[in-house]
Amino acid sequence: MKVFRSPNNPIIKPEDVKPSMYDFEVIGVFNAGVTRFKDEVVLLLRVAERPINKHPDIVLTAIYDVSKGQLIIKEFSKGDPENNFSDPRLIITPKGTYLTSISHLRLARSKDGINFEIEDAPTIRPANDYETFGLEDPRISLIDGTYYINYVGVGHFGVTTCLASTKDFNTFERHGVIFSPDNKDVVLFPERVEGKYYALHRPVSSLFGKQEIWIAESPDLCCWGNHRYLMGPRPNCWDEIKIGASAVPFKIVLGAPYGEQGWLEVYHGVDRNNRYCLGALLLDSQEPWKVIARTEKPIFEPEADYECNGFFGNVVFSCGLLCEDDKLKIYYGAADTVICYAELSLEETIKGLNLFG
Amino acid sequence: MKVFRSPNNPIIKPEDVKPSMYDFEVIGVFNAGVTRFKDEVVLLLRVAERPINKHPDIVLTAIYDVSKGQLIIKEFSKGDPENNFSDPRLIITPKGTYLTSISHLRLARSKDGINFEIEDAPTIRPANDYETFGLEDPRISLIDGTYYINYVGVGHFGVTTCLASTKDFNTFERHGVIFSPDNKDVVLFPERVEGKYYALHRPVSSLFGKQEIWIAESPDLCCWGNHRYLMGPRPNCWDEIKIGASAVPFKIVLGAPYGEQGWLEVYHGVDRNNRYCLGALLLDSQEPWKVIARTEKPIFEPEADYECNGFFGNVVFSCGLLCEDDKLKIYYGAADTVICYAELSLEETIKGLNLFG
Fold first, then answer.
1. What are A159-217's pLDDT values in tens digits?
2. If 0-12 CB within 10 Å is exposed, 13-18 middle and 19+ buried, where does residue B37 land?
């Protein structure tokens, strides 16, 4: 698969984003939801911050304190053998697990899709018990004239998926937790199918240890049921360990014998080396719980330096793309550090699905 | 708390239940849903079976094979050091986790609530991918003239909660998976509150390791949202490790200053020694996501021999009770082996909530 990477990559870097608090630093800006609004491309960025730390013997992070209504700083001793810092994203202590940074969501706008103006302050910030460790990985679905934003809420009760909505990207309404813990990688289909809303989601079974893509249906986007398993990892493949939906699915036109239309979903998969790639799958247009095809190989792999090296290297991860001009215009987080832009041919992607033999 | 245990306990034992297949044995009958239907008490029993095994070097269990539409036998070598049999409920192998028995649901009826006639064959049996390891822990809620049965479906995709319904306990309709994995200990409130259905549920956060009670709402009993944390374990208490809803909640009349009415929920809690007890909590009648009170001590603990010894000892676990004649008539699984009956005073239980200082 031929990938065109923007020569401007990374198009958004941590130093482009103003911290939300005076004594904080932005360590990552990645995994952005994307949509078109009026004549602009709108990104909702995941911005990861932490308190500036000048002491080599401690680790500082921040959590949202619900009773105080603000971020507070937590300090962990590197010398304490009971604290585990082996995963750069986590601080595991006998008293509980913490994240090494706290994320919020931040708006960025662009006329050309490459050069973005980034808001100075958080757009959606931690506000309740489900978001004490931050807000992550937003997806934007335009449904009946309203932009629905679902994001991961990480809190001491677990990893949930929350819903918000806006019509103007100025005021946002929250709709609560729509998938209970642990569940992430939720994407809402942009239109109803036979009167029902659909979502892909990624629950976690702690007993059986799987991380697979499921599909659910809803009458109102807030309440979800008829959960069905859709698709799992493939042994000895690039997506052998875990998979999840990435971009919001969109309709494409096909030919016989595969039906007139289908839903194309760009998803992510992880291998045993924690390498994150993107693949594509095709769902039936009228029965989206049926997988018609799936790319054997990734359509997009970490290869550039900014994808291979960073806070968490060897990661390309997308929360959204624009399908325009027969191209997939993919906005993606690289190495959990920066936001980049790439284009793939829609035709090549469909060919990768091996639909036509 | 004074507990009256039936002198007939255990009221249902494994040897009272006919296996579903010729060469199988019933090893447990426990955790039954309960309701009144016409002039009878109806129990929906969890019946745990396994293939009869005459070889001391192997462990046999059964799983439901979806393509064959029947149970098939799986064999595991005790000598293989990679197989882990330390939890009597589980077989943990490098290729995956299995259960040592497979459960289905079986109807039992009684005029006096103590002596039951048990059906010869399974009433609801494994039938799909979400039930390959069995059906467990049914709860029955009578809502608007229909009996809704939710049960745990255990399959290779995880631990889900499924819904079925009946009007006559002869024909049953399935409504699919209503809570995605891992989620169990779901109880449906028997009536709507301000137009919405409510359920307590028990999701699992693998990252943060909690097992706590949540509440969700629904327009139709199938799709659930607005998930909210309700209540967690208490350190150094009888419910210090994990808790979950047990019986279907029911309305009780209170006095001032606690409102006219409230929802009484009998829940279960587990301590560090894997001892399962029952406690009670009171929820606001109009805002059931608000916990008004919770018993400090268990209302019911494993003390009798049949509660302390069995397949999994030191367990009293209820999936249902009848609140009649100012008594809680509790049907409960003892030691994951047998079904027993006990009565508690409703007044004493309310006193245990320390509502009135």
1. 999 999 999 999 999 999 999 999 999 999 999 999 999 999 999 887 776 799 999 99
2. middle
Task: Calculate mean pLDDT across residues A87-93.
Answer: 91
Q: Which of B176, B207, B219 sits opposite A226 (nearest CB)?
A: B176
Residues of chain B with pLDDT under 50: none
Instruction: Give kind and range of the element (H or E) at residue B1.
Output: none
Cβ of A205 within 8 Å of Cβ of B220? The answer is no
Distance separating alpha carbons of residues B22 and B172, to the nearest angstrom: 25
- As given in the structure block, the two tokens for residue B295 are 């018993």
ipTM of the complex: 0.95
In chain A, what's the furthest Cα-to-Cα distance?
64
H or E stretch covering A308: helix A305-308
Q: Which residues of B touch A182 (CB under 8 A)?
A: 203-207
Domain layout of chain A by residue ranges: 10-351
How confident is residue A237, by pLDDT bands cut at 50, 70 and 90?
very high
| Residue A18 pLDDT | 98
Cα–Cα distance measured from residue B180 to residue B176, given in angstroms and rounded to the nearest whole number: 10
Q: Residue A294: which of A235, A228, A239 has the closest Cα?
A: A239
Please indicate whether, in this complex, the C-beta atoms of A208 and B183 are within 8 angstroms of each other.
no
Query: Does residue B145 come out as left (phi exceeding 0), alpha (psi in the -120 to 50 range) or beta?
Result: left
Provide the 3-class DSSP secondary structure of residue A305: helix
Q: Is B222's CB within 8 Å of A220's CB?
A: no
Q: Is the peptide bond before A122 cis (omega within 30 degrees of 0)?
A: no
CATH number for the domain running over A10-351 = 2.115.10.20
pLDDT in tens, A127-160: 999 999 999 999 999 999 999 999 999 998 999 9
- Secondary structure (DSSP) of A136-164: EEEEEEEETTEEEEEEEEEETTEEEEEEE
Instruction: Convert A26-61 to b/e letters by CB count within 10 Å (16 or more is b).
Output: bbbbbbbbbbebeebbbbbbbbbbbbeeeeeeebbb
Render pLDDT for B263-285 as a digit per residue (tens, 0 to 9).
999 999 999 999 999 999 999 99
Burial (CB count within 10 angstroms: exposed 0-12, middle 13-18, buried 19+), residue A25: middle
